[in-house]
């Protein structure tokens, strides 16, 4: 049995001593637990985590899992609990709900298991139980989406906001940043947000309904991968391609196609690969008692027809 050394949880400026109540790992497993396994975005996280594990050779066994859907929060909680019961060395977690995952992450902390969050954070009450948070600055990313949308649309009109999972930290921040800029820098009227529950078919139907009920919509924002895909398919299906401004989020093959054919003006793309890779690497740093930042920004790139084939864009598309 490999002993897991007691380590410090490090914030931006202060260290908080971690509980030492059960600081023993039963295995060399690093468990990567995401919001859903059924998404190219999260599979790209898996690729990054797997590549990091390969670089460490036989030091760690990296595992990957997620529920069937992002809305299955209880199932994700069970996955974290099971990882703790297996005595993993560390957990890389993308929490689907900022509050529901706090008890499970606290349990990991009580058992001496480091947790690194990716993509979405926990509520304030859970801040001391995880050691680092790797993510896009979602508020800045949402603000960038709004700036690009205003540039293409102009100051006036109506914008439909297509969001995903209510309560998810990433959804709150992205739409919040988007909304702040729309209100401050334009006269655009907003409708929504509509919540697709991160389901493409739902987003498609919601977009059809929004466009059919509001003939004066001039722009749309799709705030995550399945939502943006569903939104773009609806725009194309109704014959609105090139007639409305549309900005999506994330960068799978379908969204790249919609940028190339002009259905989407552009996409805000995160480096999901880096979230997985740096997540595993950060767990290793913590286990080796190295200092890590409490928050690590993994960045975004705005991609449109003009730069989609650039090295910078190709580095984050998947």
From TrEMBL:
Residues 1-25 form the signal peptide. Residues 30-291 form the Periplasmic binding protein domain. GO terms for biological process: transmembrane transport. GO terms for molecular function: carbohydrate binding. It is found in: Cell envelope. PANTHER family: D-ALLOSE-BINDING PERIPLASMIC PROTEIN-RELATED. This is ABC transporter substrate-binding protein. It comes from Atlantibacter subterraneus.
């Amino acid at each position: 049995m490999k002993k897991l050394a007691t380590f410090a949880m490090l914030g931006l400026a202060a260290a908080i001593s971690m509980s030492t109540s059960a600081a023993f790992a039963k295995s060399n497993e690093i468990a990567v637990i995401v919001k859903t396994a059924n998404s190219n975005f999260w599979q790209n996280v898996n690729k990054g985590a797997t590549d990091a594990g390969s670089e460490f050779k036989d030091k760690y066994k990296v595992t990957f899992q997620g529920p069937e859907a992002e809305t299955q929060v209880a199932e994700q909680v069970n996955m974290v609990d099971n990882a703790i019961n297996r005595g993993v060395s560390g957990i890389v977690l993308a929490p689907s709900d900022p509050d529901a995952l706090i008890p499970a992450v606290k349990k990991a902390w009580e058992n001496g298991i480091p947790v690194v969050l990716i993509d979405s954070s926990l509520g304030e009450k859970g801040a001391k139980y995880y050691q680092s948070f790797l993510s896009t600055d979602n508020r800045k990313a949402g603000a960038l989406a709004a700036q690009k949308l205003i540039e293409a649309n102009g100051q006036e009109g109506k914008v439909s906001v297509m969001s995903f999972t209510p309560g998810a930290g990433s959804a709150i921040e992205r739409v919040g940043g988007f909304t702040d800029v729309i209100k401050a820098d334009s006269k655009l009227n907003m409708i929504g947000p509509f919540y697709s529950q991160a389901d493409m078919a739902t987003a498609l139907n919601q977009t059809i309904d929004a466009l059919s009920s509001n003939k004066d919509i001039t722009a749309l924002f799709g705030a995550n991968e399945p939502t943006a895909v569903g939104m773009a398919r609806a725009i194309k299906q109704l014959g609105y391609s090139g007639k409305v401004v549309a900005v999506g989020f994330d960068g799978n093959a379908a969204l790249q196609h919609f940028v190339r054919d002009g259905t989407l003006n552009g996409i805000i793309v995160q480096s999901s690969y880096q979230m997985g890779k740096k997540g595993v690497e950060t767990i290793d740093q913590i286990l080796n008692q190295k200092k890590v930042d409490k928050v690590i920004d993994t960045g975004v790139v705005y991609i449109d027809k003009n730069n989609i084939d650039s090295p910078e864009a190709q580095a984050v598309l998947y």
